[in-house]
Amino acid sequence: MLKLFKLIKIFIFKDRPIQFTLLAGFSSVLIITVALIITLTSKQNEKQLFTLTDQLTAQTSQTVLEKMESFFSPIESISKLVERSANYSSIFPDQLNEFTQFAMTSVQSFSQIYSMYYGDVSGNFINIRKTANTFIVRTILNSPTRRSITEETLDMDGNLLKTETNIQSDYDPRKRPWYTGSLSESIGNWTNVYIFHSNKRPGITYALPLFSKDNQRLGVFGTDLQLGEISLFLNSQKKGSVTDLIVINDDSRVIAYPDITKLMVDDGKSIRHLNLDELGYGPIQSHFDAFKTSDKKKASFSMLDTTYSATFKRFPNKFNNPWTLVQIVDESKIMGSFADKNRAVFLISIIILLISIYLTIQLSKSISKPMMALAKEADKIRDMQLEKKSNISSHIWEINHMNNSMDAMKTGLRAFEKYVPSKLVRKLIDEGVDLKLGGKSQVLTMFFSDIESFTSISEKLEPDALMQHLSTYLDKMAKIILKTNGTVDKYIGDAVMAFWGAPVTDKHHALHACSSALDCIHAIAKLNANWAKQGLPVFNTRIGLHTGETIVGNIGSSNRMNYTVLGDSVNLASRLEGINKNYNTNIIVSETTFHLTKTAFFYRPLDLVAVKGKNESVKIYELMGHRDEKSYEKLSVEFTNVFNDFQKQNWTDSLKRLHDLKKEFPKDTVITLYIKRCNHFIKNPPGLSWDGVNRLRSK
């Protein structure tokens, strides 16, 4: 009794132990049980549904595919017969009658054939086309001296009914797609579906190039097929739960549809195929897109309170046209009693669930809300979002205590990230490891920046004003670097040292570093404009970038460390920053960085240099702007060409082209520098030993 009283007392007053509240968790067992019953029942019914649907769709698909096989197979057989028959080099004019009889017989025997024709390399052409009760035979005889066009109308027995001559037409079979598409082929091929010009119906053509016995190209034999019969056949297969059958191509154009009157769309300007999304089946287009990319053959969707199942099946690729059969099935007609069972299980389960929720909701509220709030605060700490103090109130003592601890943790981490890169702190938190001395070799992109003539600028300002002025500048630079996943290593007076690719892996580190450098230059230009209006000194920033193998990690002592980079690559990036003053440029990158990013930015080569203390030369480039900044394109391209000529000692040609560039870019100091170099080498040729390297005497 005493124990029960204590529990009630604890429950009434504010600070309840979390263990007591967790007793309410037992109710979750019932929720899980109910959910499992609903899920398993639904899954079992769904499995039976799909089994029945599979059986139905498999049977229908097989029937449709067999029909399609019988639809297309005779055409290739007929074409092969033509290919193996007598030498067709003499069909014009000697064998026209034989060809006509053969074509009429074929067209009459196969209802899907709309017309057969043959065009040779001389422009002669014969076409046999079937109408309702007649054959139309059009013949074009083309010779160097005379061109004649004749059109004959024959009855179904081949008797001549009417002849029309002297027809005016510029029709040339050699310019038609079915002919030109076969020029590079040696075997027959099916064309894409298109609208026949004569009857505005969809069709497809089998074009077969013909050759003589000595392998000389004679012409192209073609057979046009109308696809209307496929639509009629699809209509005959709509029965039971099969709501619709559709044949489409990969462009989502409807090739065949049970209602043939909906197959074509006349927009007043042209006649086109109906698109899949115009059939009124809601999300069917998105499911078809998923089928093409992931081969997801089945999909389910709801429309007008009815659930449908869509099944996609590819046609065999025998005629070079990727077609798909879409079957849409009304699931409610298959489910039958399954739906009633699902509803009964669902209703009973919901009632049980509501009762359990009613009994446990008050207890769960007291812990779920503050715990979720604490979880969000923990996520913010993991992501180093430490600005705001958490504002969580709870009746549970343990939660209040955890909240206070998190606020203290935020305060400590805020101080910690001022000295250690926040990305490194986040990585340490994610990995759950301690800081330790050591590093590893890794390819990174290094960044060094400096302010031109900063010493003289600092002498003109009071210390407090200088610190405020410089802090504004450094804050702007740091924000841009951090925005592109860069790590600010340190500030060395007015200089900034940063790198990309660590501690967070970035496979595009060179690209991000270059983009950040350009953004820094543009941002400082805006700052300078405002400072100039206020009468404050402006900062001309110079940046050096290099991508290379470097050592990255923690150096220092066991109680004081620095996460930084070391190695020749770091030194080279620093030297490149200083080299800017030799060319009056803002951003210089190494050849390695250039090759990794040249498709994204405009560059121009500046020089081959050997920095002080190094014998090896490196090619350096000026980073000018993004590829969408077309104002840099001409200078980039033309100066690159001049530089290449300069390296080949073509001083005179280089000088002429430099003067031409100078007229268009009169303030460009690099052009002026190379004009001086050309004049110098013209007067003082360096000799054959000249290697084009500019050996610098200072850093």
Main pleated-sheet profile: 9 strands, antiparallel
The pLDDT mean sits at 79
Q: What class would the helix/strand composition place it in?
A: alpha+beta
Distance linking N and C termini: 87 Å
Number of strands: 25
Helix content: 40-55%
User: Which spans have pLDDT < 50 for at least 5 consecutive residues?
Assistant: none
Structural Rg: 40 Å
Number of helices: 19
Shape: flat
Strand residues, percent: 25-35%
Kindly describe this structure.
By secondary structure, this protein is α+β, with helices and mostly antiparallel strands. 45% of the residues lie in helices and 25% in strands. The chain has 19 helices and 25 strands. A hairpin with a 3-residue loop joins β2 and β3 (134-142). The protein is flat, with a radius of gyration of 40 Å. The chain starts with a helix and ends with a strand. The mean pLDDT is 79.
Please outline the helices and strands.
Elements: H1 2-12, H2 18-22, H3 27-84, H4 96-109, E1 113-120, E2 125-130, E3 134-142, E4 147-155, E5 160-164, H5 177-180, E6 189-190, E7 194-195, E8 202-211, E9 217-226, H6 228-236, E10 242-249, E11 254-256, E12 264-266, E13 271-273, H7 284-294, E14 298-303, E15 306-314, E16 323-330, H8 331-335, H9 337-382, H10 397-417, H11 422-431, E17 438-451, H12 454-458, H13 463-483, E18 486-492, E19 495-500, H14 509-533, E20 541-557, E21 560-566, H15 568-583, E22 587-590, H16 591-597, E23 601-610, E24 618-626, H17 633-647, H18 651-664, H19 669-683, E25 693-695
Helix pairs in contact: 3-9, 9-10, 13-14, 17-18, 18-19
